[in-house]
Prior knowledge:
single chain, mainly alpha, 82% helix, globular
Amino acid sequence: MASIFNHTDFWHLSGNAAANILLKNQQNLVVILAWIQGIILCAMSPLITFGNAFVVFAVWKDPLRKLRSSPSNFILQSMAVADLFVGLVLSPLNAYWILTIAVDKKLAFPLHVTNSLGTTLVGASLAHLMLLSMDRFCAVVTPLRYKAIITCRRVNQALFLVWCYFICFGIAAFLFENKFFIISLVFGIQMVVLLNITFDLYIFILYQLYKYNKLWKRRIMGNSVRVCHRSFTDKEMNLAKRLMIVIAASLFVITPFCVLTGLVYFCIPCYSEPKVLISAMVLESTFTYLNSVMNPFMFCWRLEKYKQVWKCFVERIFQGCTKIKKRFKRNQSFDTKL
């Protein structure tokens, strides 16, 4: 790694110095990739902002009063806030920084500014995924004790700890400017641990659903329980399909981050090909922002409670439009101009 940056003390190299070295030694490749990633971020920023802002607005202005009563929705709303700041602040800031490299071939501002903000918001967003998996784990494994275990107070305490931790970690990333690669390694290890816990919980939930399905089939076939087999299996299959979609989408988005961490810090043969590492870095950053785009679709928009709230909003909009048309026709009917 030291040979790539031509720096003997690699672990004490700042992110700004590393970016300047890469820009000097691989200028053509960096400029091309900067144009590509800058355009992608400019396109993703409105999608991230719109999707997550609509989730926050739906909970805040819930006309049916259904979304504020469940502790799970507190986690979804907090995750939407984190992703909303990714779309409003982090994506435009990072796009400006990258496009400045593409146009002027220089850094607009120090790298540790966006790095500290990214570790805070992206880390908090991924930590919310783990909290959601723990919530679903308790709902499936201990359904009778779910409301006693997952309370609003405990969820709020967990969310407070998550935000405090990643805000402190972001401040540390800002202050320790010359420890860029150490901070990045620690952050990568944390994210890998969080994601492993998340996927392990989801896989265990699928295993429990499979066990419950076999157990209920035996009881139904033995006539010990009178339940409609088709309705029971449909509910179980729908829940299993949703979990499979979440797992597949999360793996598709987050795998590049884990691969890049392994390439940068542990793949010694890759050091002779810096172009591969730079391209992988751009790919990983793009997929990280894609995670914020997909979160509202995977966890909120497909839920029935959110669909009911959005249908209510749409109906109100159409009712308002019809009232305006009626008033306009009424004013025209009473027009007495000669």
